[in-house]
Design brief:
Blueprint (H helix, E strand, L loop, with lengths): L5 E5 L3 H15 L2 E5 L4 H7 L4 E5 L5 H14 L4 E7 L14 E6 L4 H12 L7 H8 L6 H4 L2 H11 L4 H8 L3 H15 L4 H11 L6
Parallel strand pairs: 1-2, 1-3, 3-4, 4-5
InterPro entries: Sig_transdc_resp-reg_C-effctor, Tscrpt_reg_LuxR_C, WH-like_DNA-bd_sf
Protein name: Response regulator transcription factor
Organism: Shewanella intestini
């Protein structure tokens, strides 16, 4: 159990920030610091924050992943919580077991989120049941084992910032072929965008060597 002194909400929605700023300081007796994604690192270095709340309705998953990694590396005393967590997209890759305390789907009401935060204050983690089950399911095959060698090569090329045309030239195939490989790889690893694929690869590429 940890004592909450200062929380930070990372969001681009001023409406959400204003709403939470009216409720949470009084409800949980905390100081709420507001930050845009680009300002988070600087503000974290200037003050001690015990909980960082990410609003995933306004932050790209790739950026959320990078910010989560920053907290994991440089602010181990801070914990993270995700609100507006996407239900239809596999975004488990942004959750780190050492720092992430909870996640709330976009459909969760403010009352439900507040109840969840009361549990967090008691030292408990709070995740939707479906998300918790998918996180702890050890019977699911490793995604990297399902990828073909070519799909692995394409994912590796993404990490270097290559465009589809660049990858096609590197592998001596057509650009449409690369798009097909990407589509199939995206389906296998459970992502829906290039940014999510890059974030997934950054976490798993040690398992996806060619």
């Amino acid at each position: 159990m940890f004592k909450v002194v200062n929380w930070m909400i990372v969001s681009r929605s001023q409406m959400l920030i204003d709403l939470l700023d009216c409720r949470w300081p009084q409800e949980f007796l905390v100081k709420l610091t507001k930050a845009a994604p680009g300002d988070m690192a600087k503000k974290l270095s200037q003050q001690s924050v015990t909980m960082v709340i990410f609003d995933l309705s306004t932050i790209d998953l790739q950026q959320a992943y990078q910010l989560q990694r920053l907290i994991e590396r440089e602010h181990a005393h801070s914990h993270t919580v995700f609100i507006n967590f996407p239900k239809q997209v596999d975004a488990k890759f942004i959750i780190h077991p050492a720092t992430t305390l909870g996640a709330f789907y976009a459909e969760a009401t403010l009352v439900e989120i507040s109840a969840g935060f009361n549990e967090l204050l008691k030292g408990r983690s709070v995740f939707p049941q479906a998300l918790q089950q998918s996180m702890t399911n050890t019977e699911v095959e490793d995604d990297s084992e399902q990828l073909t060698i070519r799909e692995r090569e394409v994912l590796q090329a993404l990490l270097s910032g290559s465009t589809n045309l660049d990858i096609a030239n590197q592998l001596f195939v057509s650009e449409s072929t690369i798009k097909t490989h990407l589509y199939r790889a995206f389906r296998k690893i459970g992502v829906s965008s290039r940014g999510q694929a890059i974030a997934w690869a950054q976490t798993h590429m040690h398992e996806v060597r060619v």
